[in-house]
Write a structure and sequence with these properties.
Number of helices: 17
CATH class of the largest domain: Alpha Beta
Oligomer: single chain
Radius of gyration: 22 Å
Helix content: 40-55%
CATH topology of the largest domain: D-Maltodextrin-Binding Protein, domain 2
CATH superfamily of the largest domain: Periplasmic binding protein-like II
Distance between the termini: 27 Å
Largest sheet: 7 strands, mixed
Number of domains: 2
């Protein structure tokens, strides 16, 4: 979660580099250079922005390189990927391929014209349509063209301690009212319902990312970008519901860090956490035996409307500076083969956009069916402008709550700030 975003500076550079890259039409005269190894193979660079998957990606790259004698893929995965990519763009030195998140970073690259249109490629038949649609929504003018191939995905919702739920006869809530009732029952039994870790502001986002897409008006992202709507008048209920949940958290939730909260949750000090599958790995480091599962965030009282928040954590794309487009396509075709995508999902504790690939870990069993059925919604912060610091605004919202600020005024002021910041950063 934390490592999926490039820096805002890098994204700014993207917009300005489309001309330098020469790639808006994917023409052959864009300064492409075909590099050869000593043994005559075409050398292709895969630039990855996610540090956590280095070992798994390298394993797959090595397997591909050993499987054929025409292409050698080299993996570049620097510590500060955003800054490195920015620097390389200023030098007109785009990598051949990218592995990155399906978020505003991808949107900026696609809009700048530096990604190759892969529409019609046979390997796209292996990809679940729900995740293709997420990328379409990020494309400039929402065109239904494939400039990236969704690969790995994730899930955000509510992580819960199955033993605590069983001991207190708590059923999985399917509506927001049922969630509040479960919290009341747990609290009455002397159990802390939620462990919140708001000292790390990014951990405030999962609940917003679950509620906002379900509760906001249809076409909000497009309308907001075009100035046809605002957060004011559309997102009051999101913050109202959020305020109803925090009284069920531990008292020091603003002072609890992500690491400390994971340890306390692992020790059974609370029944639930609002976060994603990435947190489960960290929780189990503290207690490998903790009995966990997930359920989708019941954002509203319409159970049918509620969805699992799940986005494209890793996509594969070919830049228009690629020295061997057919070789790059062959590599992507290799990556989306079921056995290779399955290896990635298992080693990285991820879900997959590739059809037939399953995540069978019991600690995410409660969201598996919804994800496989496409009952998912993308992270809303994937659609906000580069540099938009939603977590800081929400952190201040809860700080003001703790300081006794009137709820109605707090909500109004926060939504106004969200609109002001959005308009400052929005580039149509």
């Amino acid at each position: 979660m934390k490592g999926k975003k490039l820096t805002a500076l890098a994204l700014t550079a993207v917009m300005g580099m489309s001309v330098l890259a020469g790639c808006s039409g994917g023409s052959a005269e864009s300064g492409k250079e075909t590099k050869k190894t000593a043994d005559g193979k075409t050398e292709l660079e895969l630039f990855s922005t996610k540090a956590e998957n280095k070992e798994t990606l390298q394993k797959l790259v090595d397997t591909y390189n050993d499987s054929q004698d025409k292409v050698k893929v080299t993996l570049t995965q620097p510590a500060d990927a955003g800054t490195v990519l920015k620097t390389r763009m200023t030098k007109n030195d785009l990598p051949d391929m990218v592995a990155m998140g399906g978020d505003f970073n991808y949107a900026e690259l696609q809009s700048a014209g530096v990604l190759t249109d892969l529409s019609g490629e046979a390997f796209l038949d292996n990809i679940n349509e729900s995740y293709m649609e997420m990328l379409y929504a990020l494309n400039k003018d929402q065109e239904e063209k494939s400039y990236g191939v969704p690969y790995a995905t994730n899930a955000s919702g509510i992580i819960y301690n199955k033993d605590i739920f069983a001991e207190n006869s708590i059923e999985i809530p399917t509506t927001f009212s049922e969630l509040l009732a479960a919290c009341e029952k747990l609290q009455a039994a002397g159990v802390t319902p939620f462990e919140l870790t708001f000292k790390d502001a990014w951990t405030i986002l999962p609940a917003w990312n679950a509620m906002a897409p379900v509760m906001q008006p249809e076409n909000f992202y497009t309308d907001r970008k075009e100035g046809k709507t605002t957060f004011e008048g559309t997102h009051e209920a999101v913050l109202e519901n959020y305020l109803k949940l925090v009284p069920y958290a531990q008292k020091d939730y603003m002072g609890t860090s992500y690491d400390d909260g994971n340890k306390k949750f692992a020790a059974g000090e609370a029944a639930m956490m609002m976060n994603g599958n990435w947190a489960i790995t960290e929780i189990k480091k503290a207690n490998a035996d903790v009995n966990l599962d997930m359920f989708k965030f019941p954002s509203t009282d319409d159970a049918e409307a509620n969805k699992v928040t799940s986005g494209v954590d890793v996509l594969l794309g070919i830049t228009t500076n690629c020295g061997d487009e057919e070789g790059a396509k062959d590599f992507i075709n290799f990556m989306v083969q079921k056995e290779n995508a399955q290896l990635y999902a298992e080693e990285q504790f991820a879900f997959s956009a590739v059809k037939g690939v399953e995540q069978n870990d019991p600690s995410v069993a409660g969201v598996k069916a919804d994800i496989e059925a496409g009952n998912v919604v993308d992270f809303p912060d994937h659609y906000y402008p580069s540099g938009y610091d939603l977590s800081a605004a929400l952190s201040n919202f809860f700080l003001e709550k703790g300081n006794g600020k009137d709820d109605a005024k707090n909500i109004a002021d926060t939504l106004k700030k969200l609109d002001t910041d959005y308009d400052t950063l929005n580039v149509n």
